Amino acid sequence: MFKFKVYVILLSVVFIFFNCKKNENEDVNDESILKGKATIYVDETITPIVEDEVMVFESNYDAKFTLISKSESEVLNSLFNKKATIVVVARNLTKKELNVFEQSKIVPKITKFAIDGIAFVANKSSNDTLVALKDVIGFMKGERNSKIKGLVFDNPNSSTVSYMNNLAGLNGLADKDVYTFKTNNEVLKFVSENDGMIGIVGVNWLSQPNPSMNSVIGNLNVLSVKGLNKEGYYAPSQNNFAEGTYPLLRELYIVNCQGSSGLGMGIAAFVAGDIGQRIVLKSGLLPYRIPARKLNIVRGHSNNEKK
């Protein structure tokens, strides 16, 4: 009788153990394209639009994302080191970067979803709201200009620095009269308090500012830019993005390396779909696909109504 009781107890322990392991595995594998938990690493210069997309996705589906905002360099390094499997960046991967994945037999799913831009901002006290791109590039190369006292970037490893260095053909920023901070908001605050400085930030931080930054934004002019070998000055507006006249455009991408049908696939499809593209349109950026409109005829007159 004693042996029988011991046998029953052991059997119960084994049953509970395997049942717990089963539940653990179910929790681990409980992610689909519309539910579960996932982490997204985001280029900090485009954090506001990603926050908006994620908020709406989470409100519609049983999903929870953790957003980690880092510089472009840190985001991509996290992807290459396999610390991150879903990232949002302000450029496409280069051929060299794609080769890194190819060697690991990983095929990234890359989804373009918006067109953003780099904006130049100056203190409101300046009456000049125009700037030539050649003058900014010249300043980066050490050519001093009476209109520009200094350039201010968000982070030495950011996508804005990389973008401008590529335009200027430089490998790094100059030590003199070129300043870097940690965030876009710090750049905006510094420029708002210092005459003659030009801040260089992602347009997304101006089109969707944090409410706490309203007074700072109110003390800034967003400059219209004349492109290299171009005529005319253009502001970083949706219309100028669409027409391609603004000279500092860049494309936004979701890179998904999950290798399975998880939330990376779900958020990419959502952002590139009708609702996600309307969120982009509302944000002040340009959707990759302009959402369709339908014409409703109501009692003898017509209404253009968004779907």
Automatic annotation (TrEMBL):
Q: What is this protein called?
A: Phosphate transport system substrate-binding protein
Question: Which keywords has UniProt assigned to this entry?
Answer: Signal
SUPFAM superfamilies in the cross-refs: Periplasmic binding protein-like II
Q: What is the organism of origin for this protein?
A: Flavobacterium granuli
Establish whether keyword Ribonucleoprotein is in the entry: no
- Which Pfam families does this chain map to? PBP_like_2
Q: Where is the PBP domain?
A: 38-272
